[in-house]
Amino acid sequence: GAAGGGSVAAMVASGAAPLFAASLEQALPNLHMYVHLNPSLALVAEQLQLKRLLPLALDRAIREIVAPVVERSVTIACMTTRELVLKDFAMEPDETRMRKAAHLMVCSLAGSLALVTCKEPLRVSIMTQLRQALLQLSGAGAEQIVEQAVQVSTADNLDLGCALIEKAATDKALRDVDEALAPLYAVRRKSREAGQAYYDMSVYAQGRYPSSLPEVLRPKPGHLQPNQQRVYEDFARLPRTPPTQPPPPPMPY
């Protein structure tokens, strides 16, 4: 199974790598290879056709929420990344350094936002889709068995669904940030090909940056200092799994 982890990196490490090499549209038809069927449901799994219905429910749940989650996460991540990269790399002549920093930041932001935003709606949607499918098949009298299967299967496969939505967000974020920064990449490339030093004179425009901005944060000619570059590299090292809540204390009797 492919449960646990809560980030694309963790899911890949768990053996689901082929699933994450593809786009979401390519990955969804292969969900049946990666969903986790809990051994505790072995006695009822065949009766409920869980192996067939669980991937379908997960597919429908992901499709139901992915578009608004990805759109919102990517929009925020791209706007934030563009503004910071524009300032920090205003005097950077090498577009590959600029692009790498933008990619590190936008992937981390978009993925983290998508993960936090999607978890609860996805949980609710998986449960709704799976419950509906199982009840249609099993009919009256099986509500208790169905509910156990729904609760356990949702808990086991929520991270897989979240990781796929996170991957969809990071894929779109990379495309969108490159599109937004393409003119800036191009002007640097042209300067270099023409043998000219690159300077963005607009950084000196009055009012572009507040006069109170500390000297260390102001754009300077050439590459970023290593400690400034590390800010972008550290985005790749941020933990992506939201902190799990400790279980509530037992109720006194």
From TrEMBL:
One of its GO terms (biological process) is nuclear-transcribed mRNA catabolic process, deadenylation-dependent decay. Residues 240-253 have a biased composition (Pro residues). Coiled coil: none annotated. InterPro entries: CNOT1_dom_4, Not1. Residues 49-192 form the CCR4-NOT transcription complex subunit domain. Residues 214-253 are annotated as: Disordered. GO terms for cellular component: CCR4-NOT core complex; P-body. This is CCR4-NOT transcription complex subunit 1 domain-containing protein. GO terms for molecular function: molecular adaptor activity. It comes from the Eukaryota. It comes from Pyramimonas obovata.
